[in-house]
Amino acid sequence: MDIKTAASLHRLRLVSAPEAVSFLLLLVCSVLKRTTEFNAVPVMGMIHGVLFVLYVLFWLDAWNRTKWDFKIAALYFVLSVLPFGGFYAERRLKREAQDAVIASRARREGTVNAA
Fold first, then answer.
1. If you write DSSP's letter for every residue of the chain in order, what string do you get?
2. Pick the residue with more confidence: 4 or 74?
3. pTM over 0.70
4. Cα–Cα distance for residue pair 7/84, rounded to 1 Å
């Protein structure tokens, strides 16, 4: 995995958890708006909207660089619209990045030992 691919996965991973938190907070704010006088939906909606747009942009970049098949790319997109999906995406992306680092080290050590 090259540095640009690793960076794109890292960016997607960094935005996935905050996007999930903002989605949950937006849901809470929506319930509070309907049941009390408290209305933070406009503020949380804007914050969540910005984070969601960032997630989609980083998702497109990661899909382009990693060459995921359609099923994997669709899974990461669907996870962005599920309330706890961002947390699952973050954990899965972390594992994927660690596996890529291990594979890269193994390839590098294999070529060094063969020389």
1. --HHHHHHHHHHHHHHHHHHHHHHHHHHHHHHHHHSS---HHHHHHHHHHHHHHHHHHHHHHHHHHT--HHHHHHHHHHHTSTTHHHHHHHHHHHHHHHHHHHHHHHHHHHHHH-
2. 74
3. yes
4. 24
Q: 């909606």: which residue's tokens?
A: 45
pLDDT at 113: 55
For residue 64, the enclosing domain spans 3-114
Question: Total structural domains in the chain?
Answer: 1
Shortest CA distance to 13 belongs to which of 96, 84, 103? 96
* 19-52 pLDDT, tens digit each: 999 999 999 999 999 999 999 999 999 999 999 9
